[in-house]
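Blinded run. Sample ID left blank on purpose so nobody reads anything into the name before looking at the predicted structure. Input follows.
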Amino acid sequence: MNMDALANFMAAIDDKAYTVKHGAQPRSAVIVRMPAYASENAAWQVKQALDIGVMGFVFNTVETKEQAEAAVKSMRYPPWKAFPNTHKGPAGIRGWSPGGAVWAWGIDTEEYRRRADVWPLNPDGELMAIMIIETQTGIRNVDAIAQVPGVTVLSAAAGGDLSSSYGVPANSPEVEAARQTILQACVKHNVVCWISPTGGADQDRRLKEGWRMIRTADGLPFN
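Blinded prediction complete.
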């Protein structure tokens, strides 16, 4: 929730020599998760984080197609005449003030405008719109959520809130069935699927199942 700390973090990890050598290809792509629930539609948080230079935003507890659409809109600039790909999908509402992002990315403002859009809806886009599905309502609506243009990733996260929603432990069959429902929606609609495995064996299993984004944690026995 601390924008100053985020800005300092972005400055600290920035490697200008790497950017000069490789162009708009930073050594680290920063994805941020902030406290607001998707239902709050806190577009200001999204704008401030993107203006600092992050390359992805995680939306908590996405439960409906409408919430996913609002999330995508908050990450996108309004359509720009010179860039046809910005005219596809939900029209953006992000305000224009990319000074920090331009510095962090190491490109000029017009190039940033072209690249600062959600992928893969815009093939030129470099931003990730990540939706966490962590309630029974979200599971019921996950197929519709996955179909929203601009959704980059659907996440089952670690399952804590998902298990709370079902009122059972995280290793219960109901929670696993919910995870598989998320995975099926991702595969069906060609959306990247994200999960947090519990160790090396679980990681291997999830990759074989078709999960394409894996979050690891310190202290877990990953191979």
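Unblinding after everyone has recorded impressions. The CA atoms of residues 156 and 195 lie 5 Å apart.
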